[in-house]
Amino acid sequence: MSSRVLRKLQGDTGLRVDSDPEKDAEDDLLSVAAGGGAKKKQLNVNRYDLLNQQSLSESEVKEDDDNETEPTQDQDGADPADKGAKRKKKKKKKKAVKAALAQRSSEDNFDGDEIDQVNRLLGPVASAESVQHAAEVQRTKELLSIDNRNLNPNNELKRIFGVKIVQSEQRKKSRTRTHLRNTGIVTPKDTWPIIGKQGITMRYCEQKGQVQVFSYEHNSDYQLVQRIFLQAVESLNPDNVVAVIHSHPYHVDALLQVAELCKMSEDLQMAADLVERALYALEHAFHPLFNLAQGNCRLDYCRQENRALFIALFKHLTMVGQRACHRTALELSKVVLSLDPDDDPLAMVLVIDLYALRSRQYSWLVRLADEWEASRNLSQLPNFAYSTAVARFHLAVQGAIEMADADASLQLALIMFPGVLSPLLEKCSVQVDHKVLAHDFFGPKAQTSMPPALAQLVQLYVARCWPVWKEAELLPWLERNTHAVLARVDSKDPLVSECDGHRRRRYQGAPPKNITRHIVLADLKEVPPAISPGDSTGPVMSFDPLPPADSINLYERPRRPRTATVDNAGALSLFFRSLLPTYNANEPPG
């Protein structure tokens, strides 16, 4: 409320100026005599109406004050001395009015400066597209946010087997304490060397709305070791790669490369140990603001230094899932997806549904499918089409939704991807109904008519998710809906021809590079990667398979192709283990 309104509220209708005390006293006496001793009449003002009045502009204030100070006409017979006193009083009054106007003008300018400053801080008014993008980022953040306690597989093992059993097993493996700092994802082993300063740091790049962008950086010493490692890879001699780890125990790419060699020799325990050590080195370099649990931290996969975290996390979650720690694998999948959810360079949407089902996170999986359908067409992937149907079935059994919704979801998956049914039932060792096999829609024609890119995704889904369908209650449900689909096909349901058109349009040509990259890293013998000549211009390295076309390279990749033959897996595994600093001859290999 302005000072002018306050004065009006208090009953003061004019500006307060200095006046002659004798004149004031004379006016008071005249007022009392005229009123017969009555009290001064109070101004009838509604105090609450004054709150709604806007403050007057400078021109309005000046106009009102000019009207109030307008000189009155001289009456006949007035004393010249009185006229001079009045003119003097009017001059003082005009000076006071000018001072008040100047103060008012300065206040208006000050308020305007404050408004301009606030506008500069807030920036321009957001457009409808930017508001929609911000809402999508917020939904992605909520979907991919995690609890740090679910990132450590030891916590899940304690829930499965009990705290005492897990701690007892850890004490058996414990030898010497090296006092390594615990991190959120990996629990350092007692046999690991002290990490020190390995030459990797993380830099905060920028803030994009609700998203924070970071990037790894290598110092000059680490760059020198990295070039030595690349020369060792180019030499095709495993001894040279292991020598890099021997002299630099936390060199990330060397650890990932030797872990792949150990996996080829079926030494899975050593491979898991090396991947965890690489991940520990990367996690040790995290920026203080880099928080994986929030789901809003981004890394650019195009930068060569950033790709190691993606690869290490993928390999780690795969091994964690093989240990039946499905909830941990799901949370780690969220982490990888949250690092670059727009491009999804490792195609995590091909595996995240599996871990959601195995960890019984049915509601989350359905929510992910519903919220991302408009922007990503997840229903056009065979794994998501079938997995969301299974999730809805379990929710219907729990009473959360109607069984009709689960039936409709499964029938849509069967109509969209009929080539899944036959290999899935064969993998589950279930004898297929003769009526189903004899029908063209689910018979051999469904397999031969699939585009190669779709056939690869079907093989990937069946190889991974067939154990999900081994549950006794799922197979009768699948059989019932299969016969319902056959009835719809025979009745010429228009949805059948519509889905056939979608299949043919969406799966033309070679699969995207991120899907091929995912298949290379998954390393399933049932699903060999189909690498087109345009996908790779050099050898496929396990520590950085199929880099993007717009890769920002700090190092030159090896030019010679990599060939790996394992004639004696046991001898090769023993050889690798003997060259590592943590080798123990009495420890079993697996």
Automatic annotation (TrEMBL):
Q: Where is the composition biased (Acidic residues)?
A: 61-79
Q: Which InterPro entries match?
A: TCF25/Rqc1
Q: Provide the residue span(s) of the region labelled Disordered.
A: 1-27, 45-112
A Pfam family cross-referenced in the UniProt record is: Tcf25
Give the GO cellular component terms, alphabetically: RQC complex
Annotated Basic residues bias: 85-97
Check the record and name the PANTHER family matching this protein: NULP1-RELATED (PTHR22684), RIBOSOME QUALITY CONTROL COMPLEX SUBUNIT TCF25 (PTHR22684:SF0)
Indicate what this protein is called per its UniProt record.
Transcription factor 25
Q: Which organism is it from?
A: Cloeon dipterum
